[in-house]
Amino acid sequence: EDKVVQSPLSLVVHEGDTVTLNCSYEVTNFRSLLWYKQEKKAPTFLFMLTSSGIEKKSGRLSSILDKKELFSILNITATQTGDSAVYLCAVGYGNKLVFGAGTILRVKS
Amino acid sequence: NAGVTQTPKFRVLKTGQSMTLLCAQDMNHEYMYWYRQDPGMGLRLIHYSVGEGTTAKGEVPDGYNVSRLKKQNFLLGLESAAPSQTSVYFCASSIQAGYGYTFGSGTRLTVV
Question: Which chain B residues are closer than 8 Å to A6 by Cβ?
Answer without folding.
Answer: 42
